[in-house]
Specification:
Blueprint (H helix, E strand, L loop, with lengths): L4 H7 L5 H16 L5 E3 L3 E3 L4 H17 L8 E3 L9 H4 L3 H16 L24 E2 L2 H11 L8 H10 L1 E3 L11 E7 L6 H15 L4 E4 L6 H14 L6 E2 L12 E10 L3 H7 L8 E4 L6 H11 L7 E6 L1 H9 L2 H6 L4 E4 L15 E4 L2 H11 L2 E4 L2 H10 L5
Parallel strand pairs: 2-3, 2-4, 6-7, 6-9, 7-8, 10-11, 10-13, 11-12, 13-14
Antiparallel strand pairs: 1-5
The structure holds FE3-S4 cluster (F3S).
């Protein structure tokens, strides 16, 4: 692999053992994937935050790397943790988990990673420009950055993204290279895709079929960034799609030639099978979850409207980034949502939360990604449907028929 003099010096330990270790990881990955060299990154997003997944060994790994003087040399933000740092006690999470979770977040902060604790860093200031090389690891954020923003990232693992932050570089392979960004799966949509959950259902269906290929959507028409967020998150969950194009919508698809001449075509005529596969047979609903990926201000405004003058009977959680929660407070949205008894929570994701500490058995969500992961990761029986159906479930405690 061709390394610059500076990279060779970093690898040799001239900037300390922490930087050398970061270079070793980045270079090793590059060798595995046949990279010719490294590329500087402008932004990093690090997943692997929940103590539930990291455990003591992961916490120790971070602490030791920080003790070696390793620090991020480019702007870097953190994925959600397992708890809301302010509200964990009221929600019923244990002090023992909270203490360890805070230690993980502090270790990342020592390493120079901003404790944004969100999977939508692009809504809180970590917004790469078109063509930027970046190293992000949260799968839904990777999909959004590649597809909607036109930045360039592979689907990094937590340690490799952290290494890229400390090295300021990643290996130049995969989606960093022009030739790998063209689509090899044409998806022709021939059914209405109108609600947020429809976008998730479509993503669920296409992700399963595409696995790690690059889909090119035709027939979707105009899409909002919130709808694209749901589409990409679902494809990244049911498959491993890290980049997709939407004809005349996403930035690279406005040019011609992004669909490879040799491609497979998938025609989608209805979404019923996706809805069916994401729905289990739960009637009573204990918990309703909005904000997977983390909710933006528009989504919170919609919930505030739908909940106005009503009271929830099921626990109702809206997860978002802490900085967006602050803005939603200023705009009166948190007060409007919480007047119904629902909660607007920050920092956390239910998929990596220690949900077994709580007594919930069933959940409803309009997120296809959430509905894919919660049964296996949080052990709940899940209903998936529109935002309106989930609001009705929150009010009545029953899944609407
Ligand atoms: Fe974000 Fe967790 Fe959903 S990381 S995309 S809220 S599964």
């Amino acid at each position: 692999m061709d390394l610059t003099a500076e990279e060779r010096a970093m690898l040799a330990g001239d900037l300390g053992p922490g930087v050398a270790k970061a270079l070793e990881i980045v270079v090793a990955l590059g060798r595995v994937f046949g990279a010719q060299g490294l590329v500087s990154v402008t932004s990093v997003q690090v997943a692997g935050v929940s103590y539930r997944n990291l455990g003591e060994a992961g916490l120790q790994f971070l602490t030791e790397w920080a003790a070696q003087g390793a620090r991020a040399r480019v702007p870097a933000t953190l994925n959600p943790a397992g708890i809301d740092a302010a509200a964990w006690r009221e929600l019923g999470f244990s002090e023992e988990f909270a203490r360890r979770q805070m230690a993980v977040v502090e270790a990342y902060e020592t390493l120079g990673i901003a404790a944004t604790c969100t999977c939508t860093p692009y809504l809180v200031g970590n917004v790469p420009s078109f063509g930027d090389h970046i190293a992000w690891s949260e799968s839904s954020a990777v999909s959004y950055a590649n597809s909607v923003l036109g930045a360039r990232t592979n689907r990094e693992g937590g340690p490799s993204a952290l290494a890229a932050a400390i090295a300021g570089r990643t290996a130049a392979y995969g989606f960093h290279l022009d030739q790998n960004r063209r689509a090899d799966l044409r998806v022709v949509v021939r059914c209405p895709v109108t609600t947020l959950s429809d976008f998730g259902a479509l993503g669920h269906l296409v992700g399963k079929h595409a696995r790690d290929r690059v889909p090119f959507f035709e027939g979707l028409g105009e899409c909002s960034s919130t709808e694209l967020k749901a589409l990409g998150a679902a494809m990244a969950a049911s498959g491993a799609v890290a980049l997709y194009h939407v004809d005349r919508v996403t930035p690279e698809a406005v040019r011609s030639g992004m669909l490879l001449p040799e491609h497979e075509t998938l025609i989608v005529t209805d979404l019923r099978s996706a809805y069916a596969s994401l729905n289990a047979d739960a009637t009573e609903i204990d918990l309703v979850w909005f904000g997977c990926p983390h909710a933006g201000l528009e989504e919170m405004a919609q919930l505030a409207r739908l909940l106005e003058g009503r009271r929830v009977t099921a626990a109702t959680w809206v997860t978002t980034a802490r900085a967006l929660r602050e803005r939603a407070i200023e705009e009166g949205l948190v007060a409007a949502i919480e007047a119904s008894g629902a909660r607007v929570l920050a920092d956390m994701c239910l998929v990596v939360a220690p949900m077994q500490e709580l007594a919930f058995r069933t959940m409803a969500t309009p997120s296809a990604k959430g509905a894919s992961y919660v049964p296996s990761h949080a052990g709940l029986v899940v209903r998936f449907g529109t935002v309106q159906q989930c609001v009705e479930a929150a009010i009545t405690g029953m899944w609407p028929t």
